[in-house]
Each structure stands twice: as structure tokens, then as C-alpha cells.
Amino acid sequence: MTKERKIIHIDMDAFYASVEQLDHPDLQDKPIAVGGGGKRGVVAAASYEARKFGVRSAMSGRLASKLCADLIFVKPRFERYKEISAQIRSIFLNYTPLVEPLSLDEAYLDVTENLKDLGSATQIARLIRTEIKEKTGLNASAGISINKFVAKIASDINKPNGQKTVPPEEVEQFLEDLEIKKFFGVGKVTAQKMYQLGIFKGSDLKLKSLEFLENHFGKSGKLYYQVVRGVHLSEVKPERIRKSVGAERTFSNNISSEIFLEERLSQIATEVAQRLDKNKFSGKTITLKIKYGDFSVQTRSKTLAFYIRDKALILENAKTLLYQEKLQNSVRLVGISITNLKKPGHASVKQEPTTIMGKQLKFEF
Fold first, then answer.
1. Of 77, 267, 275, 331, which has the most beta carbons under 10 Å away?
2. Residues 218-261: pLDDT tens digits?
3. Contacts of 364 (CB under 8 A, 6+ apart)
4. What is the reported pTM?
5. In which element (H, E) is residue 51 found?
6. Helical residues (DSSP H) of 73-120, grouped into ranges
7. Is the pLDDT of residue 267 over 60?
8. Can 100 be counted among the known catalytic residues?
9. What's the CA angle centered on 99, arms 97 and 102, to 5 degrees?
10. CA 116, CA 135: separation in Å to the nearest integer?
């Protein structure tokens, strides 16, 4: 076992959909989907009432409508979601400075040592969830354990509006009993591969040697070998360094000509430049993403000798990538992303095992 810490994973329940139901009482207790409208629409989030019918995020709006005839589509309001997310973030920071946001609706908190001088991570999670409810009217779920991996899995156990603590002495048994498809990071493809290898639960995974797992899963093999034994060394990083900045557009009708795509690329380049400027980032690698009418995806990339942020340079390089080769089919989506980022004056935040209140707290979960 690695050095024991107290990690909380907070996950808001059906966040976008819950915000819409909160702001529009007429949507309460009804099946709603944020986004998804129109023949090309995709569901960004679904209320729990909609999930009962099988509606899920990333599902096409057309399929969602078939699954739930009474489904109500709501246009997303990301500025509103960001506003509430900021309120929630401020609550976290009242308990610990070690907060690592994963998205607008979830975050890791390291409360091994905390600003409230509380010894119980379970109690802290309960207090945070209560405060979120009181200040925003929304429900949150939580997972509490010794590392990020287990806390992330645990937060899903008692959803919605619940929490699950996996104390140090129960971690290995918890992971051994867990279905392999519920391991964070094991998607459908990996799960199917594991089934073929006779790995259905954590206990099956634990029987496999490191060599066996690396042979079948490459670099991920070592991760699987460690996490099933309760070892996950990733720290909660308060300033997660963003890896990419991008934007994309899905068209109402497929586009077959590069000339017509140029106009769309200009709009996208403007948005990417604005996002880079807002976050004070520059990048060296530009990638053009093309999704064709048959849903196949092609990416074309180039790494420059210098960092860029300017819209004109982004567009110029995107157009070069566009004309790099002929289109394979009509295009339904195009996107631009900038990676290999640099932020002037940025210094990574190192998390030291020192106390905040001047003393090491007793390990009580």
C-alpha cells in the first residue's frame, strides 16, 4: 500500500440537467436532455428521469427521442453552468487549497490536512455536500478513500445524492469484489478484451502477473497491476496544466468542398484564438479534425518551430492541413485544436506533505 492520504471525489448529479430543472420549475421531475435537438443533435446531459429510459450523454438526439417519447430537449447554457461551478469551487476552497477540477461538475480534493482542522474525510464530504445543496439547490455525490482512483469509483456507488467511504483497511477487498467494467479507465473495448482473458472482477485481475498485463495492455498493464492493489500515486494537482485548446463545428448539411470549409475554419480559428488569449496560452502543434458523413474521423497535424496564438496564423496552418490531401468523403464536422501548450510565467505546483494547520491530523475516515 502507498502512503495513506484522504482523497474526496465530488461529482455533481446530472449537473447540466439539474441546473435546468432548478432554474425552470416546470421541468422538475420530467425527462429532459440538454442539447440533442435537431437531426444532428447530440445529448450533452440527461436528467435522471430520462436516464430511466436509457437516455445517456453522447447519444444522438434522434435515438434519445426513440427511447423516450416524452423527452424534452433544452438548449445548453454554459455560462450559467460555469457560474454555478465557480460557486461550488469556492466551497471546496473553504476546506482545502488542494482542489483539482476535472470539469465543471467534478473535482478531487485532498483533505489529509485541511483548513477546518477536521479529522474525518467522511464528515468533510458530508459537510461539503450539505453546503452545496444549501447554496446552489443542487445535489452532489462523493467518494472518499486513500487515492484518486478508488475515490472516483466510490463516488458512483451511492448516486444520486449519496456518498461512499472506502477506508484503508477495506480498499483491497473493495477492488477485488469490483466488476472490471466499473474500474475507472476501463472502457467497453478494454473490458471485452479482459473478459476474453478471463478477467471479470478485480480478484481475477489481481491474479495476473505484471508481465502478463504489460504483454496484453502495454503501458496500461502496470497501472492495472498497481491500482487493483490499492496503489495509485497520482497527487491532487491544484493547477492542472491544460493539454489542448480547441473548437469544432457540426454542420446541418454535409460539406463536400474545401472552399466552403475555409469559411467555417475561419470561424473556428477565431474561437480557438479567443480561448488561447483568455487562458494566456500559446501552442506549437495544430491539429485539424475532420469527421466524414460515414462518421469516420481523420486528423492531420503539424508542429511549428514557434508558438502561436494569433487567429491569422492558426487559420493559415489549418488551411494548409485542409489542402494537405483530398477529402475522402463529404464532411459533417471539422475542428481545430492547439496542443504542446505554454503559458508565460507558469510554474507547476508541487504538493508537499506538510501540514496546513501546523500539525499532522489523525487518520480517521
1. 331
2. 989 999 999 999 998 889 988 666 788 999 998 888 999 899 99
3. 119, 120
4. 0.71
5. helix 48-51
6. 78-93
7. yes
8. no
9. 165
10. 19
